Amino acid sequence: GDSVTQMEGPVTLSEEAFLTINCTYTATGYPSLFWYVQYPGEGLQLLLKATKADDKGSNKGFEATYRKETTSFHLEKGSVQVSDSAVYFCALDIIQGAQKLVFGQGTRLTINP
Amino acid sequence: DTEVTQTPKHLVMGMTNKKSLKCEQHMGHRAMYWYKQKAKKPPELMFVYSYEKLSINESVPSRFSPECPNSSLLNLHLHALQPEDSALYLCASSQVQQQIQETQYFGPGTRLLVL
After folding, report:
1. For every one of its 113 residues, what pLDDT tens digit does chain A have, with 9 covering 90 and above?
2. DSSP letter at A72?
3. Pick from A1, A4, A10: which is nearest to A90 by CA?
4. Are residues B98 and A95, on separate chains, in Cβ contact within 8 Å?
5. Residue B68, Cα to own-chain centre: how many angstroms?
6. Residue A100 to residue B101: CA distance in whole angstroms
7. DSSP state of A98
8. CA distance A97 to A89
9. CB neighbours of A69 closer than 8 A, spacing ≥ 6?
10. Separation between Cα atoms, residue B70 and residue B67, nearest integer Å
């Protein structure tokens, strides 16, 4: 079945470091891919998305490129801030009569000043 | 406006209580979703409503009863819950387009504790 695999956390970085969170997927068909972020005590917020191969999603300095050949959607940011500390979920969607989101396990990111 | 609101923010209930969670959106979305999220886990889909009709039930126990009274509102009625049902319950909404993937927008969640 369709699935998403994220790199295991937690990830701890210093402020201004470069961030990569790996995400790979298995899917039949051509899903859209998403990164959601969850700050402590809150719901999920859409960070970025890509709907087809080679699309690049970007928002707030974060980027991810939909790579069909490697079935990947890695999240990157050039210089992280303390405020980026959160849990990041990679997800794909499938249409089974209605849209279903399939999430990865989440990666907890902590940025130290 | 991309806001989904949920009430209450926190809820504590006993195993014999009946309570309801509420979700509201005014984005004109015709698909609405309930998710359950346990600590340090991803959200798990429970129900999907499309055009106010239940389209997906992910084999959720009958002690959870969803209701979609109109296109803006989604309720989750709770009865005879178990302590293991304690979790964050998230509501989401999206447009409905066949074969075109639409973004789901999430509410802040209701944190439920069952004693």
Report:
1. 889 999 888 999 999 999 999 999 999 888 899 999 999 888 899 999 998 899 999 999 999 999 999 999 999 999 999 999 999 999 998 776 567 889 999 999 999 99
2. B
3. A4
4. yes
5. 10
6. 10
7. S
8. 24
9. none
10. 9
Look at residue A70 and give its three-state secondary structure: coil
**What residue ranges in chain A does DSSP mark as E strands?**
3-6, 11-14, 19-21, 23-26, 33-38, 44-50, 56-59, 62-65, 75-77, 86-95, 99-103, 107-112
Q: Are A4 and A25 in contact (CB under 8 A)?
A: yes
Residue type, position B75, single letter: N
In a mutational test of the B interface, the residue from A96, A99, A100, A107 whose CB has the highest number of chain B CBs within 10 Å is: A99
Q: How close does chain B come to A69, measured CA to CA in Å?
A: 21
| DSSP one-letter code for A21 | E
- The pair of three-digit structure tokens given for residue B17, joined into one six-digit string: 């209580």
Q: What is the rounded CA–CA span in Å between residue B7 and residue B68?
A: 15
Cβ neighbours of B96 in A, within 8 Å? 98-99
CB distance A46 to A33 below 8 Å:
no
pLDDT at B99: 57
What one-letter code names the amino acid at B114? Answer: V
DSSP B33-72: EEEEE-TTS--EEEEEEETTEEEEE-S--TTEEEEEEETT
Number of other CB atoms surrounding residue A58 within 10 Å = 14
